[in-house]
Amino acid sequence: MLAVCHLFYGYFMSNSFKQFGFIGGLDDRTLTNIGSFGALFNGCFKVFWASSLDYFNFKPVYAIIITIQITLLVVIHWAVYHAWSYFIVICLSFMCDGSMTSMLPVVTLNIFGILRGPQIYSYMYSVFGVAAMLGTFFVGTCQDSLGYNGMLVLCLGFTITAAIISFFYEFSALSYTEVAVK
Hints:
The protein is mostly helical. It contains 6 helices and no strands. Helix 1 (about 1-25) runs antiparallel to helix 4 (about 85-125), helix 1 (about 1-25) packs across helix 5 and helix 2 (about 30-50) crosses helix 4 (about 85-125).
């Protein structure tokens, strides 16, 4: 659930950043460059955030990422009218999106262990598809009535839900006896 809520905004924005940028008056060439750099941020920072889990626990690392994402969702409504601010927001948004896809395997192994983790991760991998289908559903049913700003508020709701889940959930290793009892 955490991953679905976190990834909702990234999947929405990766498909809509250009159309939203047109609303802000940005031209196609600028938006293409923004998208290209955003893709680089998505890929390059996957290594950074996943590697940070070798040195720090998941919660403080994720707290940084989710705080950045919430901030971006608030400022994007104004950033879209200026090329450089929109560039920064989109690049950091794509970075936040890529962070979850790279950290999820590490977190799964930490919780379920080296033997059971890979089996669980095969199920966890489906969250990427669930987040994409959920986004498609909301865009198809709500975007016409809500507009881009309304959809971004919906994304903010999903992101705050992810923040709440991460705050209350304990991301520590489970023993087999604890799993058997549950």
